[in-house]
């Protein structure tokens, strides 16, 4: 029996990996951990086709593992791959080498002929906030009025029509200035910002009508298991527009909640459409109790919510899906 689960992550990942690993062990499966920041300097990966057979070997500082006969893979994170390489090779080779490292690693992940919880191509598809909104709208979710543009005139017309508007980037990132990390959050567009819209020409933005919040939901879905948590983000001045701005102070104020049946069905339908078994959704509940879909994060963080469940149930669900002990959406390369 194939009882090996491959986890793709990095050495700085949080303890959720340990929790999932613990539950995988209870299911009588073993974990092979591939830290991508140790690739290629400390982790060696080889795929060979000869004598009519494919063989794949991962050699870590601790052990040598066969990867062509794994039962499943959890592609969680691919942070800091090629760590330390810059100091090892001539600067002119660094860019091309990193290109090959990424292509090789992602090519390997894409080709794994076993059940995968997450894949580079799946994450890339879910990067499209525009497709997310279109699908959510099609399956009957309420979504905010939205304008994605690099045209200052279009943006201005949208803002003047809807009056109360937020602006956000479509990808999460930080700007580093003098060694200080400035994370770019969602912000309300004020009158003085209208003068700055000309800079849109250089970088598009997403604008949405601001939805008043009774509460915010983070809904983590694993297979068919739905874990919904709510926060009253309006209790903190910092968090009113974007709860992440005061995320640390709110971390233990999330409360487990139940979704209305029709909303839960739409959440599961969204994962059916994308053919994925993991997603972390952001939903706003308005004072009128209307549920607005904001976005789905393909590999959104879950550890702080997992800690609020009895016995880290989200980690257990992930382990059960990986070990085929819970219903899952089949996505093998050659099923």
Automatic annotation (TrEMBL):
GO terms for molecular function: ribosomal S6-glutamic acid ligase activity. InterPro entries: MvdD-like_ATPgrasp (IPR048936). It comes from the Bacteria. Residues 4-118 form the MvdD-like pre-ATP grasp domain. This is MvdD-like pre-ATP grasp domain-containing protein. Coiled coil: none annotated. Gene3D superfamilies: ATP-grasp fold, B domain. GO terms for cellular component: cytoplasm. It holds the Pfam family ATPgraspMvdD. GO terms for biological process: SOS response. PANTHER family: BETA-CITRYLGLUTAMATE SYNTHASE B-RELATED (PTHR21621:SF0), RIBOSOMAL PROTEIN S6 MODIFICATION PROTEIN (PTHR21621).
